[in-house]
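lol ok so funny story. i was supposed to be doing the assay writeup but got distracted and ended up predicting the structure for this chain instead. priorities right. anyway since i did it might as well share w the group, maybe its usefull for someone
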Amino acid sequence: MITLFDIPSNVPGKAWSLFMWPIIDVDDETGETNAALAESYDIAKYLDEAYPDTPKLFPTKKGELERLEKFAKQEFLAIWPPSYYLTVCKIMLPKFNPESQEPFSTSCAKDFLRGYGKDRLEDIPLSDEEAKDGWRKVKDGFNTLEEKLKGMDGKGQWFLGNEISFADLVIGAFLVSIWGVFGEGSSEWEDVRTWNGGRWGRFMASLDELCGYTAANQ
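and the output, tada:
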C-alpha cells in the first residue's frame, strides 16, 4: 500500500511548516514499511523502479539520466532570480491562515531568501521597480529554458525528445505555480503563455492531455 502525505497550508488550526513536503510511505502485505521517501524526484524514481510495467519518467540511458538529474536538481532552480521568489512569497503570505503566516514568513526569509539577511519575509523590502525587474529576469529564465529544449525540436516537444520525463513535470509544475499565484486572467500568465513563440502555452496544453493540468487551456 502506498500512502501519500501532504498537509494543505490553509487547513484551519494547522500551521504551515518548512518541513512539510510530499512524502511517500510504502507498506508491503505484512504491514512493514519498505520505503519512506520525501522529495518528488526520489518518489518518482522509486515508482518508476517499483512498477516496471507502467509508463516511465526516467530514461534508461546513462547520459540522458545524468542530464535529467542535473537539470531537475541544479540547473532549473538556478534559472530564476531571487526577486521572483520574493514576489511570489509576498503574494502568497496573506493567503495562508493566521497560524501559517508566521512560520511561512520566517522560513522563507531564513531559507531560500536568506541572501537578503532578514529574519522575516515582511522585513525584506520589494519596490515596484524591483518586482518588474524580477519579472523581466523570469522572461530571461524562460529564454534559457527555450535554449535547453529547442535542441529537441524536430525530435519531439519534451526535454528528452519524444518521451515525456520527470524534467517536463518540473517545468510543468513551475508553469502551474505561476498560473496559481498570479491568476488565470493575469498579465503574468498571459505573458508566459505567449513567450518564445507560444511554446509554453503549447507545452501546457500537451501536458494537460497527458496529466490533466487545469492551467493548460486558461
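Residues 15-20 have pLDDT under 50 and may be disordered. The chain has seven helices and three strands.
back to the writeup now i swear
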